Amino acid sequence: MGNVVHPSARSVAATSSVRARKLADGVATVILWAMASSIIVMLAAFIVYMVYLGWSALTPSFIFGMPKQTTAGGGIGPEIYNSFYILMLTLIFTVPIAVAAGVYIQEYALPGMFRNVVQFSAESLATIPSVVMGLFGLLVFVYLFHWQFTALGGALTLTLLNLPALMRVTQEALASVPDTMREASMGLGGTKWQAITRVVLPSAIGRLTTGVVLIAGRIFGETAALIFTAGLSVPFNHPYDLNPFRPAETLAVHLWYTHSESIVPDVDQIGNGSALVLLIMVLVFNVAARVLGRRLTTHFTGRSS
Q: Are residues 80 and 214 in the same domain?
């Protein structure tokens, strides 16, 4: 009978085991909570620091004024305009192609060689660094087509750079729609195309819109690809021209150029102000993506995302 464990001993052991598990769970919870909170702290610290450096530069003359080459007091008005102009051109090219490709791969393409090749090509294109894509745009649009530095060349280069990401976003958005919705639509006599356009896409519009807006923020802040394609200058005679075959220095490129090659005496003030404006716009894109995505999801499906 020496091997028999007294009930009280088993109770003590069980209690100790429970306490150890609770302690481990508490420690893990604290560590994970601290790691998650550190992201918020780092973002807040970064924003506060950028506001501290650049807030004094945000005057009307700086935001809407023309840049200067050698004297102080230049603005970033044309650069802000060019950033939005190239953004719109890029989205006009990117969204239809990427969404159509994503719809085909997710809804129509059967498993096989062609689908695998398309997926592999998109994944390979997504891994190309932006500076390499910029060199490709330089060789094709600047030298081969003889366009020189143009807004159109920059937009087409950014289209190639962002097509895989938006195509993947489209696939994931469509994959989130339950198959029962497709079956119900087709069971009521609808065609596959009608099921996609009237049921699947409206149900996925929230995620899809979020992806488009987030990619827009990425396009707005792109630098390397545009240095080689859109150029480092603005036409001073017609800085707000809609002509796509003209140089179009964006805000992100202007920020890089100011801190690397500019000889203006107030280079730090221009750089800090430009960085703060760029940061604010990217944050606006991120917030807009969340808000717009949720509202569109609620509007088309009646449920919140």
A: yes
Whole-angstrom Cα distance, residue 242 to residue 220?
Answer: 18
Structural domain of 169: 63-301
Query: 110 to each of 78, 103, 106, 107, 181, how far by Cα in Å?
Result: 48, 12, 9, 9, 20
The pLDDT tens digits for 235-290 are 888 888 889 999 999 999 988 888 887 778 888 888 889 999 999 988 888 888 88
Is 155 within the bounds of a domain?
yes
Q: What is the mean pLDDT of the chain?
A: 86
Give yes or no for a contact between 135 and 228, defined as CB atoms under 8 angstroms apart: yes
Residues 228 and 203 in one domain: yes
Are residues 173 and 73 located together in one domain of the fold?
A: yes
Number of Cβ within 10 Å of residue 58's Cβ equals 14
pTM over 0.90: no
CATH code for position 238: 1.10.3720.10
Measure Cα distances from 68 to 57, 236, 259 in Å.
15, 10, 14
Tally of domains within the chain: 2
Residues 6+ apart with CB under 8 A from 201: 103, 174, 208
Task: Judge whether 1 lies within some domain.
Answer: no
SS (H, E, C) 234-254: CCCCCCCCCCCCCCCCCHHHH
1 burial level (CB within 10 Å; 0-12, 13-18, 19+):
exposed
